[in-house]
Amino acid sequence: MSASDARLERLIAPVEDGMARMREILARQVAERSHAVVDMTGHVGRFRGKQLRGALVLLAGDATGNATDEHPAIAAIVEMIHLATLVHDDVLDGADVRRRVATVHQRWDNQVAVLLGDFLYARAFALSTDLSSRLASRALAEATRRICVGEIEQSTLRYDFELTDERCESIAGAKTATLYAAACELGARYPGGREEIGQELWQYGLEIGLAFQIVDDCLDVVGEETVVGKSVGNDVEDGKVTLPVLHAYRRADAATQARIREIFTQPGLTRRAELLRAACDLATGVESAMARAAQLAHKARARVAALTESPARAALEDLTEYVLERRW
Questions:
Q1: For residues 318, 319, 325 and 328, what is the CA-based torsion angle, rounded to 10 degrees?
Q2: Where are the beta strands (DSSP E) in the chain?
């Protein structure tokens, strides 16, 4: 186990009982008679990671004194939605590896991957209808809508080096941070009421989720696949202009900017990420983007500082540092 993994396990230790219940619920929800589906859900379970989004539901519930018997089920729903987005994202990005194993579309094909993602979405929202409050269904349906809109907008803005930071962050926030925000909000206010604390935890989740995505974007352009554990360079191959690339582009001279645009747009090029590394000083862009991620993490930490002192609150605070230090 890496030091990073060990640290995350310590951070989610305050809600380990709830995590165990969440995993039991998750296993029951994806169980099927179809041997093909069982094979696929078993495979996708290998790159579920440490289930941080589910843990956030439970940590936010404990930290705000709002934990209920239904929180593990909400955490399981959040994790199923997350798994569905991973399966679909790998198709969109053309990624071959996740968590050091083949992606679903790589092992089977795109059609199977899309259907498996749909299956996971269906199971998630079916479980949400069994809860005593419709708050989770509404919040997670809205989160899923935002995720889809973010992916659509990013696809339509390929090769656009005139993006503002705000627009770039809005897209990254929609496609990634939205689910973090929904997880934290539901932890803090399910089954209803508590709008003020729910909004504060929603903002906390949005900020650490956006910081997480910025770090991910940095790893995509300068990380090594053997360390990161998934395909890297996919954004460059797909023409997606992320924050570190945007910042590096702005700092480059006109000739280098022209070369960067050529690397992104010229048909037939291979290993575009390697060409980009050779063409410009990505380190400055990464440094600038990481500074923005740190700013977001600092804001998130301040949001939970006013909560009653507890192991769960301490974990939420420490998670703001963890998202900046991860390398996978």
A1: 150
A2: 97-98, 101-102
**Which DSSP letter does residue 308 get?**
P
Given a contact cutoff of 8 angstroms between Cβ atoms, the answer to whether 98 and 86 are in contact is yes
| pLDDT tens figures, 30-43 | 887 787 777 677 76
Mean pLDDT of the chain: 88
- Section 277-295 average pLDDT: 94
Please state, as a whole number, how many other Cβ atoms lie within 10 Å of the Cβ of residue 299: 16
- Give the best-scoring range by mean pLDDT among 133-142, 144-153, 218-227: 133-142
- Is the peptide bond prior to 191 cis by the omega test (within 30 degrees of 0)? yes
Tell me the CATH number of domain 3-323, given options 1.20.120.640, 2.30.110.10, 1.10.600.10, 3.40.1390.20. Answer: 1.10.600.10
Q: 10 Å Cβ neighbour count for 322?
A: 18
Of 63, 205, 190, 93, residue with least CA distance to 132 = 190
More confident site: 279 or 8: 279
CA 265 from centroid of its chain's CA atoms = 27
Tokens 């059609």 correspond to 111
Distance spanning both ends of the chain, measured CA to CA: 13
SS (H, E, C) 264-310: HHCCCCCCHHHHHHHHCCHHHHHHHHHHHHHHHHHHHHHHHCCCCCC
Q: Which residues of 21-42 are buried (b: 16+ CB within 10 A; e: fewer)?
A: bbbebbeebbeeeeeeeeebbe
Residue 292's closest CA among 324, 260, 318?
324
With a cut of 70, say whether residue 242 has pLDDT above it: yes
Q: Angle 216-161-277 (CA atoms, 0-180°, nearest 5)? A: 55
* Distance of alpha carbon 37 from alpha carbon 21, whole angstroms: 23
Q: What is the mean pLDDT of residues 233-239?
A: 84
Token digits for 17? 């009982």
